[in-house]
């Protein structure tokens, strides 16, 4: 079996992994592994932008309070303060790397700032309506210019290698499947960083890319890391509803610029659910409102209407959304957009400290796969890219501080036999069936509105699938779908078990039997640990 050695191993090629690599480029050899193409990330799909205090009528205190309010009592205040206050410097990092944020047409010396749900001020920097794609492309370009940063595509990490197999210990590297040459390989490293993104593919309908199968969370959980607050799954209110459209988000920025939501009868309804903020209420409120309207009317979708604004402005401000919708026969300058909610962001994840460190020595987690305490029970719009930037910076500071000691570490060769890897011999229909089944179970019974009966039903079905996997496909397989099925099964179980423990409605977690949040809730953090 081939064994590769690298100083720093980063798993994931989104904003978290790429920005960290650029921050650490002078330390030694850095290898970035991604299971598909480097640009196939959630970062690339981010439309809205990055929240940062820039406006004359804004302040750190306003941004901090907005984040805490939307997080619904679960945020760690010290983390929120660190992220918000360091945001301007992190925006400078992006600008220095070459990201060109839109300028205010009325004052080209200033950035154009937009508004999104939950924000009390305009503070979202953006690049058109394709901010994530602009950032991803720029960071990939910068990384490719650095000789000691290697980006390896089509490499799936299936197991973290630690010094002690039976308790959280020091990280040694990762067991990896080379999906091009269809063979197992080992990467040894002094530092390993999980930047694997979220887990939207656990649900039947999601705005996430196909890569979002919760791999990093499953890897960390199996290695003994704490996993926290998995019940808080954020559903984005507005994904394009069209039989041929897949995972296409309709940015919250449309509502920030004046778009309104209409039910099947063409009437506005958000005033019934939040009389003050209406369409600009936090995502959990808007999503539940849409869900309730759909259940009341039996309609398949609601509508987002921005056609009352000048058509030239719409085309210029939202070129990507305009062109994509037009491809599906929807002219957003003259007609409303059919939309439905979809799983969008995981607020929980691998439990880390303010430096991105996990329970395993020299193993870090950054971005959506991590639970830092920033988002609490519900993420404030456009705080996600910001979190990834801030925590990649925090991790870089910690790794640099540790480096004199780390660079002296010798690579340890783990004892793993090639016979541990198998090939799928039966028809793949068994794998694809369970893939579809678990995603439908999660959508139907652990989605936007939950009940204890639904969650208990879900956990029984997930247990059945888990046992079937253990019986028929134990161990590691040279097959992407099989290994991803194992990841989504682990993540699905963690989400449902966490939801069963939170006997209140808070943030994105809405439980029918407990429709109100408790003033003194039993736990601010629900944690699971494998051993």
Summed up, what is this model?
This protein has 531 residues and is an alpha/beta fold. Helices cover 35% and strands 19% of the residues. The protein is globular, with a radius of gyration of 22 Å.
List the helices and strands and how they pair.
Layout: E1 2-11, H1 15-23, E2 30-34, H2 42-45, E3 50-51, H3 60-71, H4 77-97, E4 103-104, E5 107-111, E6 113-114, E7 124-125, H5 131-144, E8 149-153, E9 155-162, E10 171-178, E11 183-194, H6 215-223, E12 227-228, E13 233-240, H7 253-256, E14 260-262, H8 283-297, E15 302-305, H9 311-317, H10 319-327, E16 337-346, E17 349-351, E18 363-365, E19 370-371, H11 384-406, E20 421-422, H12 429-445, H13 452-472, E21 476-477, H14 480-501, E22 527-528
Helix pairs in contact: 1-5, 1-11, 3-4, 4-11, 6-14, 12-13, 12-14, 13-14
The CATH superfamily of the largest domain appears as FAD/NAD(P)-binding domain
How many helices? 14
Output the structural class.
alpha/beta
The CATH class of the largest domain, by name, is Alpha Beta
Q: How large, in whole angstroms, is the Cα Rg? A: 22 Å
Overall pLDDT level: 93
Question: How many individual β-strands?
Answer: 22
Spatial separation of the terminal alpha carbons: 29 Å
Strand content bin: 15-25%
Biggest sheet record: 7 strands, mixed
